[in-house]
Structures are given as C-alpha cells and as structure tokens.
Amino acid sequence: MTRKAFYIVVFISLFFTSCIPVKDLHYLQDKNSSGEQNNITAVESKPYRLQANDVLSIDIKAIDPKLVAIFSTNASEQSAAGKSESSLYFNGFTVDDHGNIRMPILGEINVIGYTLEEVRLNIEKKLLEEYFKSEANIFVTVKLAGFRYTINGEVASTGTKTLFQEHVNVMEAIANAGDITTVGNRKAVTIIRQTPTGVQMHDIDLTDVNVMKSPYYYLQPNDYIYIKPLKQKTWGTGQTGIQSIGTVITLLSLATTVYLILKN
C-alpha cells in the first residue's frame, strides 16, 4: 500500500468513526420498519407516595376565614405567582424521619406511603370529626411544594430543578435543563428512583418513540437523571463532520512535518 493510499484509508476511518450520526441526535423516532403509523399511548404515571423529607403545601379554607386562620402559613397566603422554592421549604410541612408532619391543632399526622389525595381526605376527615361541622364547608388542598428532580451528566444545566406542576415527563425535565448536549447519549438515559422498597435504576432510549410506553417516561418527585457521554467525547476528534475533517487535517499535517524532519 502506498503512502497516499494509507493516508486516504486513515482519513476515511477517522471521519466515519468520529462523527456523531444524526439518528443518534433525534428524539422519539419511529423505528418501525413496516412504515405504518403507530399510535403510541403513554403510560400513565402512578400516584406518588410520600417519603421522608418531602415538603407539603397544605391549604385549608372555609366560608368564614377566621375559623381556619390558625392553619394559615405565610406560604399559603401568598399568590401562586409569588411562591418561591425557599418560602415553600420554610413554611411548608416537612415529612420527618418517622413519616409524620406536624400541623397546628391536629398535631402529628402520619403521611409516609400515602398519596396526596389520601392525605387530603385524612386531614378533611379529622377536621370534620373533631373540630368543624359540615356547614363550615371545609376545603382542603394538599400539594407537594414543587416537583423536584436532579439531572447530571451531558446537559446544558446540571443540578437540582424544581417545577411547579403535577406531572413531569423526562422530555420536559431535560428541556428544563437546557437539553442534552451533542455528545450526550440519548439512547441510554439513566433514571434512578427512590421507592419505599429501595432504589430502582433503569436506562431508557429517548431516540425511540416507544419510550413513552415505559413506566420511567413520567418522572416521580426526587428522581435522579444521568446522561452518559458518547465515546466520541473521549476521542476528541470532533462532534461534526467539519470538526472531524479539521482534526484529520491537523494530524496529517503533523505527521507530514515529523516525516520531513526525520527524513532531513
């Protein structure tokens, strides 16, 4: 093999192995080879069951506000737009290590392992049985003090994020973190989930539209998302065709220079 042919082979090899294919960058691709249109039904997220260190926002209303004034907190008195993560943390009700929250008058209430709806019904029942009559029209709202998750790895903005909405899917969470970088592996996104029975870890492929059928497509509060890097990042040859060509030209120039120096 001549030197020219050798350089051509090296150039082609580096070019095709260092570039990131477009198919690895596109989300939710229909990989059904039949070409037929499929209707994908996303798996509904299961109701979240409360765990230790969760923070609850509990709001109690009645026809006469004076009757429930003792239950009001600074957080509940603020408008929805004015609530901040810090105010909800300091004024909300934190689930302690024993699974209880402490409320005025009602005292300690066990909430660990319960859904938000179950906690709401329990508080409403205690109020009507022990302190109020049905004519008071007690209205109880129980929410998490923000949907919190942590994302790390190959995204534009890592860290713990908080969204003020009931349900969050993994695509929304990634978008809120500034999207996955070019060298992030969209085919193996790891979801780490803390459950009452232990820690679960699962990889999902965001390039496949069928990911919406996965029980991990919808996040649970306190989920941890990790985006692994592609192997092209460690090679350092470039993320696009232009970058790869530039790297190859630089290497060939260096090799030629070294060859000429040694020859002389």
TrEMBL record:
TM ranges: 241-262
Annotated keywords: Membrane, Signal, Transmembrane, Transmembrane helix
Domain Polysaccharide export protein N-terminal: 44-142
A Pfam family of this chain: Poly_export
PROSITE patterns xrefs: PROKAR_LIPOPROTEIN (PS51257)
Lineage top rank: taxon: Bacteria
InterPro entries reported for this sequence: Poly_export, Poly_export_N
Keyword check for Signal: yes
GO molecular function list: polysaccharide transmembrane transporter activity
Entry coiled-coil feature ranges: none
PANTHER family documented for this protein: POLYSACCHARIDE EXPORT PROTEIN GFCE-RELATED
Name this polypeptide is given: Polysaccharide biosynthesis/export family protein
